[in-house]
Amino acid sequence: MRNLLGSVQTETEEGGVDITPMLDVVFIMLIFFIVTATFIKEAGIDVDKPDAATAVVQEKASILVAIDENDRVWINRRETDIRSLRAIIERLHAENPKGTLVIQADRNSRNEVLVQVMDQSRRAGVYNIALAASQ
Predict the structure, then answer these.
(1) What is the CATH number of the domain that holds 80?
(2) Which of 35, 40, 77, 121 sits most deeply, having the most CB atoms within 10 A of its CB?
(3) Per-residue pLDDT reduced to its tens digit, 74-88
(4) How far apart are CA 132 and CA 102, in angstroms?
(5) Does some domain include residue 5?
(6) Angle formed at CA 118 by CA 113 and CA 119, multiple of 5 degrees
(7) In a domain, 92, yes or no
(8) Per-residue pLDDT tens for 24-76?
(9) Where do the TM regions start and end (predicted)?
(10) Is residue 108 situated within a structural domain?
């Protein structure tokens, strides 16, 4: 290319695509998916659940309580005393009032502990309780 003075001018810009707007969109989508994602909560231990032919998946399980084979109660990967269970369930229920409480009781645990957990949850004001089972 020649300029007005007749000297040769080299082209310094290479043809290319500006990807900055695309990166902006990708980051906005990433933030959107992180904010709207539903994370699966776990009680903290693996439980050998009993089988049930009519088991139904609970969509809005916000509180998970696990009872292991040694009748220990677990919430949020921490072993919890049955006497402090009511206060913990009240706090978790206040964070998500529309959620349900799911009890994951091991098939070798005692029914007495299961009934105590259900009783503490009802005292905490949670009446929507489900028992976990394998299909």
Answers:
(1) 3.30.420.270
(2) 121
(3) 988 889 999 999 999
(4) 6
(5) no
(6) 95
(7) yes
(8) 999 999 998 887 775 555 556 667 677 676 666 666 667 889 998 999 999 88
(9) 20-40
(10) yes
* Sole residue written with tokens 């084979």: 69
Which residues span the domain enclosing 110? 61-131
The sheet with strand 100-105 has its strands ordered as: 78-80, 73-75, 61-67, 100-105, 129-131
Tell me if 47 is assigned to some domain: no
Q: Is the pTM of this model over 0.85?
A: no
Tokens matching residue 29:
């989508």
Q: Are 71 and 110 in contact (CB under 8 A)?
A: yes
Number of domains comprising the chain = 1
Crossing angle between the packed helical segments 85-95 and 111-123, to the nearest 10 degrees: 50
